[in-house]
Amino acid sequence: MNNVDAFIAALPGIGRGILVTLELTLGGAVFAFLIALALGLATRSRLLLVRGATRIVIEFFRGTSLLVQLFWLFYVLPLLGIRLDSLFCGILALALNYGAYGAEVVRGGISAVSIGQFEASRALNFTSWQRMRRVIFPQAWAQMVPPFTNLLIQLLKGTALATFILLHDLNFFINELRRSTGDTLFAYGIGLVIYFVIAYLLTLGMNAVEVRAKNRIAAGPTLREVMGLKPPKARSQIDQTPRSRMTGVIS
Amino acid sequence: MPTKSAARTTAVPEPPRIQFEGVVKKFGLNTVLDGLDFSVARGDRVTLIGPSGSGKTTILRLLMTLEEANGGLISIDGEPFTHERKGKRLVAASEKYKRRMRTKIGMVFQQFNLFPNMTVRENITEAPQHVLGQSKDVANMRATELLAQVGLEGKADAHPSQLSGGQQQRVAIARALAMEPKILLLDEVTSSLDPEIVAEVLAILRDIALSTDITMLIVTHEMQFARDVSNRVLMFDGGRIVEEDEPEAIFTNPREKRTQDFLKAVL
Question: Which of B 205-224 lie inside 8 A of A, CB atoms?
Answer without folding.
Answer: none
